[in-house]
Design a protein that fits this description.
With 207 residues, this protein is an all-beta fold. Helices cover 0% and strands 40% of the residues.
């Protein structure tokens, strides 16, 4: 997979390559790839030779996958799949960085000398393509029990009403450097505290 092409709601193309590098035949191996919640499993329509169970895709050694009946030394094959990625959530700021990556790990399992053997690939980490986002809220009450503002509501001429403004910034794919956040006060509203920078009625935060 190409991490630069993984987008919300888009297709994710993955390819598994397996090769028997040993000196004996592998009889009826099972090939699987484990993924996480960022795949839209309800929308995924697997080919008839694939089984899906618990966010894992299986190729079983049955009549639909006759190439898995016996894998001779030196045999190699690519298994390609295209998966739908879930749509972008309404509020990315509630998700942790760990919840914004697709994880995939392939494995092959078989019986050897009457023992169950399993071999796993390195885990593939695919970050989703993310854009810079800014979410703002001006709140007097956070909820029915928590007040963060003060003064008359609605505001009255000559009286001070305080609201608390919440800005949530999501940096997207890259770290932010030299970011400036700017807001414009409504007409007839005055800022009561010292601003970092004043430009007419604009208040600029520089951090």
């Amino acid at each position: 997979g190409d991490a630069k092409e993984v987008k919300w709601g888009g297709p994710l193309a993955l390819k598994i390559n397996y090769k028997n590098t040993g000196k004996i035949n592998l009889n009826k191996p099972v090939i699987a790839i484990k993924l996480n919640d960022l795949i839209d499993w309800q929308a995924y329509q697997p080919d008839d030779n694939i089984r899906v169970e618990n966010k894992t895709i299986y190729w079983l050694p049955d009549e639909k996958n006759d190439f898995l009946q016996s894998v001779a030394p030196g045999d190699s094959k690519d298994l390609a799949i295209t998966l739908p990625v879930v749509n972008e959530p309404a509020d990315l700021t509630i998700l942790s960085p760990e919840e914004l990556i697709i994880k995939a790990q392939a494995e092959i399992s078989l019986k050897f000398n009457n023992l169950d053997k399993k071999f796993s690939s390195a885990e593939l980490i695919l970050p989703l393509s993310l854009a810079l986002k800014l979410k703002t809220e001006a709140r007097y009450n956070l909820d029915a029990k928590t007040t963060v503002g003060s003064g008359p509501v609605p505001p009255e001429v000559g009286q001070v009403t305080k609201y608390r403004v919440y800005w949530k910034v999501y940096a997207g794919d890259q770290a932010l450097i030299g970011a400036n956040l700017k807001t414009v006060l409504p007409a007839y509203i005055n800022w009561q505290y010292q601003a970092d920078q004043w430009h007419a009625n604009e208040y600029v935060f520089c951090r």
